[in-house]
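Note to self: keep these together.
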Amino acid sequence: MESISSHQQLYFPSETELAFHNLRNRLLREGDSITRRVDAVLGFRVIDCRGGYIECWLIDLRQGRRVVRRANGEKTDIIFHISENDLMELFTGRQQPQKLLLTRRLRISGTKSLQNKIQYLIPDKRRKSRL
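Structure:
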């Protein structure tokens, strides 16, 4: 059995990172229809419970691309500002973006006409699961 020395650090991904990783996998599986519908670059600024930004993510779905990664200051068409808890509920389909927008738990900046594109990133709970 191998032991871990004190100078080695274990890496545990955040819930946000896991959510975007799952989204990336879903886009790779069934992304053609999603990229055609969205055709934009979406940014997400994830906010912690104290109101500070903890992570920024970029989703590039222009011209058939399916890029999901941490943002490094790139220009996006729209930015969604959301708390980590609300992001988890949104990406698992337990919460609808319209409700989050109306209650101001999801805010947007950028091209407002793209705000409805977020619905294509959310798994459709009405579909039957594939077993």
